[in-house]
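User: Please fill in residues for this 191-position structure.
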């Protein structure tokens, strides 16, 4: 006794349309990568030059220089709501390690922002750069969440980095794409 055949033949992989156009998706992720890179790079350059304003046509924005970064960190950890953070160990790390050594940490922050920004803009080791940027932003999220304001303070700064650390966005309009085409052995993370 044979089983009745299905009314439709089984779909083959080549017959199934993708959920999204891969080229369009790649371009969209490249735009996101470049945009996040510009934000990192601009804030890093602000820490080098000391400039805190950016004016591009009708757009006017604020950047955070080295003194501003130190002041924000000190305020959020020590002074917010007259008591500062309640995250175990955070106040100790900030007050005993970071703030007393700000002469070193201000340049580390600057190097991370400029480096991550530049790598994301050109699309080189973009997933690795995104992971470094993600660690940086998650530390800031920890500082902000401990300020007893919102449960998910500024997710627009770290959620895109989760995505960019997971997908090879540097392969579209980026150096990662050139490297992978010319050196197929690099077809793995962080490229």
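Assistant: Residues filled in for all 191 positions:
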């Amino acid at each position: 006794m044979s089983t009745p055949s299905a009314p439709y033949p089984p779909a083959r992989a080549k017959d199934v349309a993708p959920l999204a156009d891969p080229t369009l998706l790649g371009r969209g992720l490249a735009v996101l990568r470049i945009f996040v890179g510009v934000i990192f790079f601009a804030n890093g350059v602000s820490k080098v030059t000391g400039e805190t304003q950016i004016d591009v046509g009708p757009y006017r924005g604020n950047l955070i220089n080295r003194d501003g970064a130190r002041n924000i960190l000190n305020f959020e950890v020590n002074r917010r709501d007259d008591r500062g953070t309640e995250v175990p160990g955070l106040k100790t790390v900030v007050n005993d390690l970071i703030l007393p050594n700000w002469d070193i940490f201000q340049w580390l922050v600057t190097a991370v922002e400029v480096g991550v920004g530049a790598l994301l803009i050109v699309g080189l080791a973009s997933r690795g750069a995104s992971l470094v940027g993600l660690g940086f932003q998650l530390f800031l999220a920890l500082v902000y969440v401990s300020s007893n304001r919102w449960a998910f303070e500024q997710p627009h700064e770290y959620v895109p980095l989760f995505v960019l650390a997971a997908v090879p966005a540097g392969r579209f309009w980026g150096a990662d794409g050139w490297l992978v085409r010319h050196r197929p052995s690099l077809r793995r993370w962080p490229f």
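For context: The longest strand covers residues 53-56.
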